[in-house]
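#help-structures
NK: newbie question, is this the right format to request a structure? protein is Amino acid permease
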Amino acid sequence: MSNQNIEDGNHLAVLGYEQSFERSMSLWANFALGFTYLSPLVGVYSLFAIALSTGGPPSIFWILIVAGGQFLVSMVFGEVVSQYPIHGGIYPWTRRLWGRRYAWMAAWIYIWAMVVTITAVAQFGSGFVASTFGVELTRGTTFIFSVALLLVALVLNFTGTKTLARVARIGLAAELIGVIAVGLYLLVFARKQPFSIFLDSMGVEGEGSYSAAFMGAALAGLFLFYGFEACGDVAEEVSNPARRIPTAMMMTILIGGISALLSFGGYVLAAPDLQSIVNGDDADPIPAILESTLGPVDAKIFLVIALTAFLSCVLSLQAAASRLMYSFARDGMVPGHQWLSKVSPTTKVPTNALVVACSIPLLICIMIYFGSEALLTQVTSFAILGIYVSFQAVVLAALRQRLKGWKPAGPFSLGSAGFIVNILALAYGLFAMVLLARPGDTGDFVADWIVLIGLAVVAGSGALYLFVAQPDKKSTAPTADAIEVAEKLRAVKVRN
């Protein structure tokens, strides 16, 4: 028997599941899925002005810091998914590494963080739709274009994994053109600032310490480097996942980091009036930078490329969220689990879970349209922290199993370095969560504490449901079996 059969067929059987999906996703397509979810184009465009007005040009170094920390996390994830190449990512990993209740809370927080992220990306993408078609961006058009992005992504997701992979590859090409090609062009042909500008705070610290301003700009990196875990969310649709997914995750971080550096750096160096951006006078400087350097026609082409990247990002987010919900439901852990765990016999995708992954963002869009303009900021404030909390739930659970004697049995293994990498990844994660959870200093209690308030509401409601409904007691799926499964996998490899 070949290693391919062990990894795809027998491997899944050892984990207690049968094959229900079509394994049509290659390494390149899996990487494209994670990269379009991470989307450096979306991240840089969304946070460029905020980063510069908070930390000045040196805020670019947060891209390096966070990329390094998240690369450590991706290596821990790589070992876990290599042993557990099953749908759902965060949920099954925490369940098999720790237990039902722990996994339920990690997945509950992560699901809501993903749903809100889908909403936010669709809302931000509406601006590109309006600019591309020359339509004025109003409250109404923002709502219409956001809904359109969500529904188009849903229709594409309904058609199957091959479409998802194809659109992800198109989105990857759009991302690479939009960030690397444009970034290099700005660096080489349109540079108006010296490279030394990245060591110049340009006065953002005022009369205070620059260290405080620099720490305040951490979001420039923290917002960028998640999404690589989506590579593992679709594990049962990937050929040879135990080997390919860890590679795809690490490629996502490395290429995403290079892309973000080139893009962010290019915009800084090509800005004709950088001081006005740093002073906070220009809240949306990138279109002006592009038009002044590329001209109106090429700037319009860039908008089309960016819109393609946004659509691909929404598509990838929906796909990842639906697979997590499916995994949750397959183990009987949520109400309506039989309905949510259904897989289309023709397209081999969890259609009902996809409907939910689209419907909740649609409802949030309606709430934003009829509610306060600040509602989008308020409902998305906890999303990044929630995702980091869920990530570190996996890292902590992996470390706990290592202390019990677990030695990962998948084909991707860090060997003796795994323990050190695991500790460093946890230390980085705690550092990042402290930065994300720091309250503001505006004097408005809700505005200053909204990140922790949002996380508390989501975690509190999840804990209440867990206590009252006790879904963990209704599930008989395997749990806390990392050491046992590792032994079984090694035995299978020896026999074959």
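mod (FA): yep, format's fine, and the tokens are attached above. The chain has one domain: 3-489.
NK: thank you!
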